[in-house]
Amino acid sequence: MVRLDFTLPNRQVLDSNISFNERSLLTIKYLYHAGAKVLVSSSWGCPKDTTQPPSAEIVADYLSSVLELKVMPTSWISDCAQSKEEDFDRADVLLIENLSTFREELANSSAFARKLSSGVDVFVNDTFSQSHKILASTVGVTRYCYASVAGFAFEEELSRLVEITTTTKQPYIAIIGGDNLKGKAAAIHFLASKCDGLVFVGMIAFQIMHGKGLPVPLRFVESGAVKDSLKIIDDAQRRKIPILLPKDFVCVNDSLPKQLHTFPAQRILDGWKPVDLGPNSMIDISSMLSKCQKILCIGPLKLKLPRADNCLASKLAAMLETSSRSGCDVIVIGTAACKEFSRPSGCTLFKNASVAWVCFKGRVLPGLAALDRAYPFVIDWDTTFNNPAQPLVVDIGSGNGLFIFEMARRKKDMNFLGLEANKKLVDLCLDSVHQPGLKNRYFIATNATSTFRSIVSSYPGDLVLVLIQCPNPDFNKPEHRWRMLQRALVEAIVDLLTINGKVFLQSDVEKVAVRMREEFIRYGKNKLAIIENEDDLELDDEGWLRDNPYGVRSDWEQHVINRGAPMYRLMFSRVNES
């Protein structure tokens, strides 16, 4: 299932250009030609001059024309009796109903997400503009899919955003427009920590003026924003960077609609409203921009007041294009701001302002966090272990590392690798590893579910043992997307484990142990067998191992034993393929 992003600008959909990201179309074509059955999900509103969104049939027809594939709409969300498999016999690609018509989409309903992802193996998110929202179609569905990855368009937009936040040229100036200082304060603090100067051009400028103690009409002051403005001013003073505020504004009076008058910023008369920056303000901005090597412009470039025109926007756009032609890196963020620039303008245009504001605030994008992070690991095994040819033991969820440290001390002829999601615990373990002593143990901070194959596949020796001990039961519920044990991890373990290699599983929660056993049986590709009859392994009446066969207990296992509670253990062995 590919989550697609597009807009419908006009009533005559088939006669207009529906705005698609070409990389999204490439994602669909790539999957289709690779042999996948592709479901497309999206939400679309009303074109500008209509009150009703176009039907799924119209959108499917347009998709068919641009993809050169047969796209057929489905109504299987509303009509559960219809089968996806039957639909694929009649079309190349299926289009799911308009998601904007379902309240459950915005509510991230689990039931709706489960229905949406029914029968889906791989989810591909290609709608970066929605990544700051928690939607059933971008976040909820990832709980129920075998794998969740980014599409080509998503990846490209994410890379561009990373580049935007990377500062390589100085002086670096941020031009900030719009209003709502309280909502943007955290992001502006971030910009103040990175930039060599801040330029405020929207109604937000009045909040900074007020914080500086300058006389400002109270009708332009945002309630409750004084503390935020003072902190921004303090940030700038501490880093000794300038804050440029407008000196004058072009204003209009409702009683004299055709008359414009320029006022100093601190002396705007009652009844007058700013619609544009004055000439002195524009001179100051032009002077500052002429010295810049990088400019970030974010937020609406026009003043958000009734009757405001686009003079400010067009003037700033002209300045920025001039700076770009002079070799300055110019980045413009926001759909409205990007419309002011010619094609090609030489500026980097990034329309997803909402996503950028969230990132600048230091928050995680939910749509990004929900995806698997299967990036490749490049590990120099020769520097990690003294002898990388020795057999390898991997402890998944190694915690504080006590098990690995003791095992490494006892088994000097083996190498031990701990994979743990908690970076703080890993850092503590690595501090101990770096102390003088044996060099046959190492730890990596990672989500093993998506990176186990990438990490272990490059190891030059044999993988002889994998342990999963006492995973957190709260993160091992079948409906939980981030549970430790998933199909991807089981298959990676089975593929990389040497013949007669072992998988040791244990938990103090019987349901978790049973589920782990079932997952390894279900996805083990008939290459694993439960060990039941070896002389040194004793089973209880329910088929669980009575004792830990390695004689070394993890800290949680020891805690469970001390309180007299049972442990549920089992062992798999890798067998020859039948």
Q: Give the percentage of residues in beta strands.
A: 15-25%
Low-confidence blocks of residues: 10-17, 475-482
What is the global morphology? globular
Strand arrangement within the widest β-sheet reads 20-19-18-21-22-24-23
Q: What is the CATH architecture term of the largest domain?
A: 3-Layer(aba) Sandwich
The average pLDDT value, as a whole number, equals 84
Biggest pleated-sheet summary: 7 strands, mixed
Q: Looking at CATH, which topology of the largest domain would you report?
A: Rossmann fold
End-to-end distance: 34 Å
> What count of helical segments does DSSP give?
21
Number of domains: 3
Subunit structure: Monomer.
Protein name: Phosphoglycerate kinase
Organism: Aquilegia coerulea (Rocky mountain columbine)
Catalytic activity: guanosine(46) in tRNA + S-adenosyl-L-methionine = N(7)-methylguanosine(46) in tRNA + S-adenosyl-L-homocysteine; (2R)-3-phosphoglycerate + ATP = (2R)-3-phospho-glyceroyl phosphate + ADP
Q: Can you walk through the features of this model?
A:
This protein is an alpha/beta fold and 578 residues long. The protein folds into three domains: 2-160, Phosphoglycerate kinase, N-terminal domain (Rossmann fold, 3-Layer(aba) Sandwich); 168-366, Rossmann fold (3-Layer(aba) Sandwich); 381-574, Vaccinia Virus protein VP39 (Rossmann fold, 3-Layer(aba) Sandwich), CATH 3.40.50. Helices cover 34% and strands 20% of the residues. The strands form five sheets. The chain has a seven-stranded mixed β-sheet, sandwiched between helices. Strands 5-6-4-1-7-8 form a six-stranded parallel β-sheet. A six-stranded parallel β-sheet has the order 11-10-9-15-16-17, with helices on both faces. Helix 17 (423-433) links the parallel strand 19 (415-420) and strand 20. Helix 7 packs parallel to helix 9. It is globular, with a radius of gyration of 30 Å. It is an enzyme of class 2 (transferase). It holds the Pfam family PGK. GO terms for molecular function: ADP binding; ATP binding; phosphoglycerate kinase activity; tRNA (guanine(46)-N7)-methyltransferase activity. Its cofactor is Mg(2+).
